[in-house]
Amino acid sequence: MASTRPGQRKLQILQALAAMLEQPKGEKITTAALAARLSVSEAALYRHFASKAQMFEGLIEFIESSVFGVINQITEKEERGVDQLHAMLQMLLAFAANNPGMTRLLIGDALVGEDERLQARMNGFYDRIELACKGALRLAVTQGHGVEDDVAARASLLVSYVTGRWHRYAKSGFRQNPAEGTDVQLSLLLAA
Questions:
Q1: Which of 106, 111, 125, 154 is the most exposed place for a label (fewest CB within 10 A)?
Q2: Residue 109 in contact with residue 99, Cβ under 8 Å?
Q3: pLDDT at residue 2 above 60?
Q4: What does pTM read for this prediction?
């Protein structure tokens, strides 16, 4: 590869890793395979990342900043709690559809056999998603939609629904779009 500016090589490595995660077979990714894909040595990878776990952390940071950035925009734009929830859930499903490799991180199968702190970080991601759902549900309750006693259970159900759609998408070899045909399902889940 031609010489690149600092930071650009890091981005290339992360993009190549994300592309490798898009392979529907879901095989374990090695630094040797990643280096070969980029036509560099493994040592070149380690000049930019201390470990493969750090590479995965770079992708997780991308997921977190993308998802929570949009959630913040949704909560600022949508006044109704139910509308916030609907927009958040649709965004989470569309994010997976637009980023199949990231879906393997979202469901954790790309992290099997990797550093356990990566799965712990993804668990924290799920907690933050559930917290965002609770916030929108509480707002919906103040607007006459639902009851306060149901907030935690409903938030958990909504996160389980999204993760179920993500799993189905990954297990279908990225053929079954997670956002397709969800309008009726979301209407049922968000009904008072």
A1: 125
A2: no
A3: no
A4: 0.91
